Structures are given as C-alpha cells and as structure tokens.
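queue> holo job accepted (xanthosine-5'-monophosphate)
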Amino acid sequence: MKRELVIVLDFGGQYNQLVARRVRECQVYCEIYSYKTDIEKIKEMNPMGIILTGGPSSCYEKDSATYSKELFELDIPVLGLCYGAQLMQHLLGGKVERASVREYGKSQLTVDNSSVLFSNVAKESVCWMSHFDYISKVADGFRITATTKDCPVAACENKEKNLYGIQFHPEVLHTQEGTKMIENFVKDVCHCHGDWRMDSFVEESIQDIRNKVGNGKVLCALSGGVDSSVAAVLLSKAIGNQLTCVFVDHGLLRKNEGDEVEAVFGEDGPYELNFIRVNAQQRYYDKLKGVTDPEKKRKIIGEEFIRVFEEEAKKIGAVDFLVQGTIYPDVVESGLGGESAVIKSHHNVGGLPDHVDFKEIIEPLRDLFKDEVRKVGLELGIPDYLVYRQPFPGPGLGIRIIGEVTAEKVRIVQDADAIYREEIANAGLDRSIGQYFAALTNMQSVGVMGDERTYDYAIALRAVNTIDFMTAEAAQIPYEVLNKVMSRIINEVRGVNRVFYDITSKPPGTIEFE
Ligand code: XMP
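queue> job finished
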C-alpha cells in the first residue's frame, strides 16, 4: 500500500524538524528534503503536499536559496512558511521588501475565517513572528487572509491553484492556533486522511525486517536507552533468536540499571533473543585511572566500548547485519535529509566498530522522531520506565564525575542520583522536567555530622527544561523538594556533606556537568 506523503522543503530555517513533527502529529507521514533537491525527484515521490520552511536569506538577493517556479505548477498544494511564503510571492510576481523593524516574538493575529487554512481557528489569537523582510504586495491571483499590526500580509492564498503562504510560524507552540492551521492544510487542502500510525508502522517494519534478514544473523549493541531498546524489541519480534544483543555494563550506568536491562532483555525476560551481558566495570575503571580531562574520558569510554563489543562479536563470528539505533533527527542533522546540518560529533560514542564482520547495517527506526520511537515502544509492550527514560549520555556517569573516575566515586554519584530521581518522581515532576541528574563535584570541604568533623564531597543537582537540548533553562524545582533531596543525600550517602543546585542555563553552561 502506498503511504500518503507530505514533503518539507528545507530552506535552512531553525524549525524545519518541528514542521515535519507537526505534520506527523496529524498522522501524515512527512519527510524533510533540502531546497537543492531536484524537481524530478519530487515529482517521482508524488507527495500530497509540499511545505516550504523558513530560512535565513532574503529572497530578492543574488544567490539566495531559491527553487524552480515549476514547483507551483505541479498541481500539488504548496504552503510557504516565513521565508517560504516570501519566496513563493517573489517567484510569482509579488513584492518582498526589507521591513523598517524586525518583527520578532509574539504578535496579535487576525485571520479571515473564510480561508480553508483558518476554518475553525479563532479570529484573534497570538502568533510567533521572526522576520526582517515582509511581503508588501501579493502576486496576481492571491488574496490576503491574515494580518497583524506590523504585517500587512501575515497570510495569503491562491485557492484555485492551492498555493498558501504564512508569514509567521504555525509550527512553533507559541502560535496558539498553529497546530490547527497545519492540520487544515494537510487534511482539507491536501486531502490526506492520515494513515501514519504506530501500530501499522510496527506491523510493516516486522514484515520488512523479515524480508530483508531472511535466515540471516543480526547483531545489536544494546545500551538500555530508548532507541536501542525499541530497535531490539522490534527485531526480536521479527526474527527472534536470529538476533543477538550485546549489552556492555561499563560500570558507569545509573544505580541498578544493568540489572534492570537484564531483567527485560535477559533469559528471564519476555523476549526471544540471545542476550549477552558483558561485565566490563573493572576494565573501564582501570583504563580511566588517573584521567581527569573530560574529553579524554569520553574518548577512552567510547573506544573501550568498541573494543569490548568487537571482542564479543568475534566470539559470535560473522553476522549478516549490524543494528544501528539511528533516528530521523540524526538523519536530518547529519545533513542527509534537510539543509541545517548540526555538528553533533560528541554524541556518537566512538562510531562504528572496525573489526566486526558484518555485511550490512540495519536501521529500523531511521524514519522516526523520538516521540514516535516512544509510541512504538509502548505499542511493543516495553515497560514505561524504559520507554520514558530520560536521555543518558553514552559515556554515562564518567562525565558526571568531575576529575578522576573511581569505583568509590561511581557509588557516591549512583546513590545520590537514585535518591534525587526517587524524590522527583514522588513530587510528580518526573515527566515534566526535560533532564535531571546528580553529578559529583571534585570538591571536598569541611563539615560536621553529629559531633564529627567531616571532609567530604559536594554533590551538584542539575535539572533543566529544554525543547531541543541545544538551549536549556534550569528547572524551578520547589524548595521543599530540593530540601528533602539534600537531607536524604547527606544522611544516606556516605562520603557527601554538601549539596548544591545548579541554576546555570545553556548557554553559557552545558546540560551535563563535567
Ligand atoms: P550538553 O552537555 O552538551 O548535552 O549540553 C546536551 C545533551 O546531550 C547529552 N550528551 C551526550 N550524549 N554522549 C551522548 O551520547 C555524550 O558525550 C554526551 N554529552 C552530552 C546530554 O545528556 C544532553 O541530553
């Protein structure tokens, strides 16, 4: 069965992935392509609709990002957003000019409800604007369908030709009615029914994996994180014991995490697969002895992972496929999909193993956004606590311990972190905070406990709210919760006599604490 497809043509805007996510929230499959994509390829894909994103250029300048006018004659509905709207007008004979002031932030929007884009949308609402240029005159055949105080053409359309332009950003949640507008475009202009569902994704993927793998052997590095867990379960459902998962316990996991992963994927768990747990804790502590530089620690941990994995792979012998837990944002950010390549090298812990004997890579989650991976996980019956696990860096606690890593320091940070997580959950905050954890500072200071003088470590608590992990704000955790965490850590974790709460935002800080 052919799936309905909407294409996002990326002109380098910062919200390109958000646009695609909003479309998928309407249950319509959506892919991102660079504006440099050949029109023949677009014709071949035969999408039900095309969305042009925002971008940093000015469309009237020489060498700015552009597209062939033919795009508007394919008889496929097109929606231009911000730069996309300006470009559409510029190419079709409208006028785009530099505004005297940049309009940035929230604006009061008035829409014409007779436009299909704005049906069932409040006449007055707040929208999110971010532009220097503005459309001063629409092209022939277009009419204006929305305005703000500073923007005479906040939206315009040529209904006969199915061409729509929106100057603001409906994909950003600050635009109160934005999701509805995107849904109107996808459902009522493009006439998509919405056939992108995670239950059918699971069924189709299982079938695809079976067809691809045949009787072959598959090897998967399982970290216990959401992506590799979901990939492993999907594969196990498709090919059972043809799958072997190697789980490396590097001794830098959170408290009890190794046992939790084993309980789900090991012999006593519900899935059919070969599970190998490698207890490499001591090996890592030996390698990390005396190393204090955070980048060196990352490198050692990443490289050692590859070595351990290779050794296990050697024992298994040649395999046909190696699983990668790649997800759609990785594809887009590595520059393969859209236009806005983001440099994210430190997140690839060590890269691919050199000495594993495999023929092909298999990436079952390559088309999914993170929230979709989670839905697939739930669909597959993976326990909630694994599906909603917060992000955990590949190098693990190794980068949450400042200075040298030792078994004793790992114990301290594991215990403190477990208390912190328990109290955050008790306060009902565990799903609302983006990422939170305890880190061990390398600072020791004098304290008193009972009648005793102590000289112990300080624990730092971190909690941030973030949309994309590129910027973040410290979360405002109620003081009583922090107080309780402090008191429990001091009383229950040997070796700690002070607790700090880190209120630094990113930038200038980073989320991790190293
Ligand atoms: P930073 O600390 O750079 O973190 O603000 C942003 C997000 O990335 C995670 N992170 C890592 N993930 N390997 C990973 O797999 C790493 O070396 C690494 N460093 C940071 C971090 O937990 C946060 O979610």
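queue> The chain is about 30% helix and 25% strand.
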